[in-house]
Specification:
Blueprint (H helix, E strand, L loop, with lengths): L2 H41 L4 E7 L4 E9 L8 E12 L8 E18 L7 E2 L1 H4 L1 H10 L2 E18 L6 E17 L7 E7 L6
Parallel strand pairs: 4-6
Antiparallel strand pairs: 1-2, 2-3, 3-4, 4-5, 6-7, 7-8
Length: 201
Amino acid sequence: MERGKAVRWLLWVLGVIAFLAIAATLAMHFATRSLKEDVIAALGPESEVADLSIGFTSIVITDIRVPAPKGWPTKTALRADRVTLVPDLRQLLSRRVYVNHVTIENAYIAALRPREGGGLKVLPSMLGEHKKGKADATGRTAEIKTVELSDCVIEVFDLTATGRQKMRVDAVQGTIEDLKVPGLEGQSKVDLKGVIKGKNH
């Protein structure tokens, strides 16, 4: 092969590779942007967000507040300095959203044990029955591989106990794996640790 032809062939190959790399990067960026609407819808119209920035591989939400529903003993269901979502970019165009990692930093999370019905309710505006109904209607659900909590506070309000008992857990660290939202079907792996202040804890 002549040297000139070899150079042109090499330049052509490099040009194709560069074009494919740019196209793939833009596709990932726009696919990540498409997830923004899902995030806003999941938070609910009454939620407050200082900033929601979209990178090429992640979505970062800062100063987020999700209000608690009427009847809860607290006004806030979730408050966090920073939440980072890393979706599986290969699956963003499917009806089911796959998220590889969610990091929640410096957060307050309220949980409620209702007087009737049992169980523990967390983020009802995001994981409630009405959200499950909408997801069933649209077919848009999500699977989250890992949720990581970093320096968080969890307050558990137990309405089954006399006097509305509250337990506060500080410095919560750890992970929750294999979440399916909003229905929470299946089993999740929970590995969390924290501090309950007081001489007996």
